[in-house]
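pipeline/complex-builder :: batch 7 item 3
reading input block
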Amino acid sequence: MNPVQQYSTKLISEGRRLDGRKFDQYRDIVIEKGLVGPADGSARVRFGNCEVIAGVKLSVGTPFPDTPDKGALMIEVEFLPLSSQEYESGPPSIDSIEVSRVVDKCIRESECINMKDLCIEEGEKVWILSIDIVPINSDGDLFDISSLATLIALENTRFPALKNGVVDYKAESTKNKFSLLQKPILVTVYKIGNEFLVDITADEKKLVDARLGVTVLEDESICALQKGGDVALSSEDIDKMLSLALNKAKELRERL
Amino acid sequence: MSREDGRANNHLREITAKVGIIKNAKGSAFFKIGKTAAYAAVYGPRELHPKFLQNPKTGVLRCYYSMMPFSGVGERIRPGPNRRAKEISLVTEKALLPVVDLSDYPNAVVDVFIEVPQADAGTRCAGICAAAMALADAGLRMKDIPVSIACGLVNGEVVADLTYNEEASEGAVDLPICILPRTGEITLLQMDGKISKEKLMEAIELGKKVSHDLAQNLRNALLEKYIDLDNNHNKEDTK
Amino acid sequence: MGLLVENKNIVIPGDIIAEGMDYLPGENAFREGENLISSRIGLVSVDGRAIKIIPLSGTYRPRAGDRIICKVIDVTYSGWRVDTNTAYSAMLSMSEATSSYIERGSDLTKIFGIGDYILAKITNVTGQNLIDITLKGLGLHKLHPGRVIEISPVKVPRVIGKQGSMVTMIKNATETQITVGQNGLIWLRGRDPEKELIAVEAIRKIERDAHKQGLTDTMQAFLKEKVGDFNTTSLSDYEGGDQNE
């Protein structure tokens, strides 16, 4: 372990973080809604210095054959090289794929979107919902911040106008707002040594032994889980991490 | 002629410019003109791999232009390499290269990443303006701060800063241009459409004319990081 | 004709700073026809007939004699390769690592491993920016556990201050050991984690306000506000870390 890691680990064992936050404290959260013109819905979210933009684009397509009355959902997080010297140009890294899939599960498994609402003509035409999240400045992990940005972007999404069954890009958006059935919150809890933390920074990332991403619904039930990291977790660990996640989800939901 | 948004032919859309907005980067900037915006981030000078690309006399400049998937007026733009983005990356690099002096950094590379979060025509120009500020913000040696704008022909008249609708209109000519304001030299020149030589030169001259206003915007953004421009001083007073 | 700017004005690349042949271009300025032009964003510094621009931003230019904080990135047969926080890595040979004898073939990772931080001195820089460093010299050493932050290298002189006065003031006020590398890396370790954070805040404030006048007074007031009264005149008696002379 290098001297910086040694020092950070020592601080954590004394109940302190490098930036002085408490273990269960998120960085300052700043939220901006609906700022990107051409997008049907958008949001910009900051956790301290970490900043992401989420944008929603709706288009018309054919439904999957086994779900003729349901729309389609696609969520992708792209690690832009603009946002960090760690990211390279090129095909998605496994890390960015993991974030995409975890955020996707958060939205999909929570059933916060009624996919039947996205049906235009059964068997023929449905709405395809594409959500893209990109970091502008990446600092720490992008799980929680991306899913929060996604939710907020969805909340201010308006359906575009249709003309002859396709989107009329020349027309103004309709006033039809997207409606979410519920607001799932993704909280990722990290284990460093014997301590549990949320919202790690880039410096803290190197110290993480394991993490657990927990998607919490409004009734405090859990609809998705993702364990990451190289170290095993005991069931006692998981119990503690879940409790912390439930707590923080309540707090984050109030920010929406 | 009255333009769609009521502007005079030689007026630019409203501009917002900010510098130093991406903490991870050595230099960064945000440039918005009307509804078109671009971020730029500079990383480096850093080691250049593979080695055969290295230049022992000077550092190398690499530009990467990309549009965010939700930024376009039309359909979602699928992430990944596309020919238009590659071409814009190339002309952006050529627009900036004459201005930047990387001789202090043999064998190294300076990477400039440009991302467009929203587009309403003039995206490559906005990208170049953002990149120009980002390079200066990074402390690199430059001859001047290049500025870029799309001039052209709309309804037969020479105008500056075309919107998407103007560009798409019948008979419109789109002329993205990049100018070094002090000398009037041109480092980017492209054109789509049909135009007479006279109108073409008129459009270029209009570009040079508006480049001074544009340069002032970029200058203010760079200075604002250090001084309170409202006080109209260029020297911080003792507290 | 003549000077178009005043001393300490902030200029950007391309700004015309003087007209006519009376003035000479110093660092970061160049002549174009009859004019002198700034080539970087920085502060105008007029010295007689020479005008130079003190950069407000930029990378570290390695120079022999400078002390820099490096991170070991590779252990080779004959030494270590280190990251200098520039585009160029540096070589620390076995013979320059220590005055004690290192047996040929011994495990070099026992001395420095990958990820270790060292405070080294640059002994030589070639035309292609290849850098040689040494750890033999007063105050040069492997860094102990602590935090490492990065500031813009052009702000380092302001953080150090005249004869180390600024960094010493921060050390005293916050009871924090601080080692400043010319390449913009700074190592800190405080007795009290909260005061250590104040030291970090102070350094960041200097980085932001480096171009302003009266910085010493500003920082003194800032530190006083954060930690209360502190001894501004004498050096504290704990191990004060490195003196960057």
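note: The two ends of chain A are 40 Å apart (CA to CA).
queue -> next item
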